[in-house]
Amino acid sequence: MRAYQHLKADNDPNGNPQRLYVVYELQTMPPSEGLGYWTIVEVYDEGYAGLPQALHGMPQLPDVSIRRSDYHSRYNMAKGAGLLRYGS
C-alpha cells in the first residue's frame, strides 16, 4: 500500500514554491510480529506543476507545514538517495 503527504514550506525570497510530495510505502512484518512500518519510496518536487499525475487516486496523509530549511534538507536527501522526481 502506498500513500502520499504534502510537505509545504513558505515560498523562497523570489516567490518560488517550496513544496514536496513524499510517497510512503507500507512494509509489513511477518504476521507473528503484527507490525509494519512506512518507508519513503519517492519524493516529488511540486514546483508549479501541482499534484503529480502518478499520485492521483492514491490515499493522502494530512499536509504538514515545514520550514524552508527543512524543505532544502529533505530535497537534498531525496536527491542524494535517488528518490527525487519532478512535476507531472
- The spatial strand order of the largest sheet comes to 4-1-2-3-5
Q: Give the topology string: H per helix, E per strand.
A: EEEEHE
**Could you estimate the helical fraction of the residues in percent?**
10-25%
Radius of gyration: 14 Å
Number of strands: 5
- Uncertain stretches: none
Biggest sheet statistics: 5 strands, mixed
How much strand content do the residues show?
Answer: 35-45%
State the secondary-structure class.
mainly beta
State the shape.
Answer: elongated
How far the N terminus sits from the C terminus, by CA atoms, comes to 21 Å
* Structural domain tally: 1
**Number of helical stretches of at least 4 residues:** 1
Key features?
5-stranded mixed beta sheet; elongated; mainly beta; 88 residues
Task: Give the structure's gist in a few sentences.
By secondary structure, the protein is mainly beta.
Describe this structure in words.
By secondary structure, the chain is mainly β. The protein has one domain. Helix content is 15%, strand content 39%. The protein contains one helix and five strands; from the N terminus they run ββββαβ. The mean pLDDT is 93.
Indicate the topology.
Layout: E1 2-9, E2 18-28, E3 36-45, E4 64-65, H1 68-80, E5 84-86
Parallel strand pairs: 1-4, 3-5
Antiparallel strand pairs: 1-2, 2-3
